[in-house]
Here is the input.
Amino acid sequence: MSDFEQLWPEGPMFRQAAHFRLGTDSVLLADFVRAEGRRRGIDLGCGSGAIALLLLARAANLHMTGLELVPAAAELTRGNMERNGFSARCDIVCGDLREYRALFQAGSFDLVVANPPYYPAGSGGVSADADRAAARGELSCTLADVAAAAAYLCRTGGSVCLVHKPERLSELFCALTACGVEPKRLRLVCPRAESAPSLVLVEGRRGGRPGLTIEPPLLLRESDGTESAEVRRIYHR
Here is the structure.
């Protein structure tokens, strides 16, 4: 277990699990979310609570719930919230997102966020660390499970925001629309302008009408290899 680290000067303090480090995908998803006007949000599979922490630091009127399967990770999230004075604005539930009907009432949230496992079970290598393997591969939940939970938990008109791999974008859209969540906003994340996307950021609306806005790509680096101005903004550098 690492010590608390400051995410940026005068920013939140964060302690992360030694076996699974804070990734760019979670930071970019938190920045992608339009939290203004949202009152109650939930992070499905919150890990050590990075996304919830970043959203709470930005939106003063937002209350977050973190749902996490692994008890040690849930406890780590509680510590992160307490360290930053967010305990009153964040509830941590240790449970299985596939049991969403038993855990929460329908439509309890107007914002659902998730950084779900990217890889179908049986594809690619599997980490020897069980928690890391479950975070990267669909061992504990599938993309369809995440979409079903998000649709149940999100009220009509609320937002569902996810980060995923571009090769599964069609599957992601189909899973969301099958559950009544209409994809409304898409942003591709590219290492450089000349590179293919490495991540996709998607916002859907529960009960929304068809109509997708494709935003300009988020470039991580300039052609010369230096960080882009947007990445420096996101990371407060």
User: Anything to note?
Assistant: DSSP finds eight helices and eleven strands in the chain. The chain has one domain: 5-234. The chain has a mean pLDDT of 92.
